[in-house]
């Protein structure tokens, strides 16, 4: 299955919008990003998955000043699924107030809704080792 160019652009903009909304504190607009029953998987950070938009919003408010001051998304790759959904892989950079930086990978499932494309599942994975932890064996 393939996606129309318009769908690919809409999905890429959806993924990009996340950082703008969070960085500006517009957490009340998360319905523009996520389905109401979204699963936001943070298990690789030692946390339980967040279920639903309200849980994501509450978690962001709870982090308060520990939130990054800037979220940047790059390397967006969109793959159509046979079921009409799309899988999206992207990289995220978070800049903290002290200037330090962290990197993650986002693995998203996006679905078409009456209001446009929305993220129904997001897995956030920290990037902490070069080359995915692979080493040369010899």
Automatic annotation (TrEMBL):
<dbReference type="Pfam" id="PF13577">
    <property type="entry name" value="SnoaL_4"/>
</dbReference>
<feature type="domain" description="SnoaL-like">
    <location>
        <begin position="4"/>
        <end position="123"/>
    </location>
</feature>
<dbReference type="InterPro" id="IPR037401">
    <property type="entry name" value="SnoaL-like"/>
</dbReference>
<protein>
    <submittedName>
        <fullName>Nuclear transport factor 2 family protein</fullName>
    </submittedName>
</protein>
<dbReference type="InterPro" id="IPR032710">
    <property type="entry name" value="NTF2-like_dom_sf"/>
</dbReference>
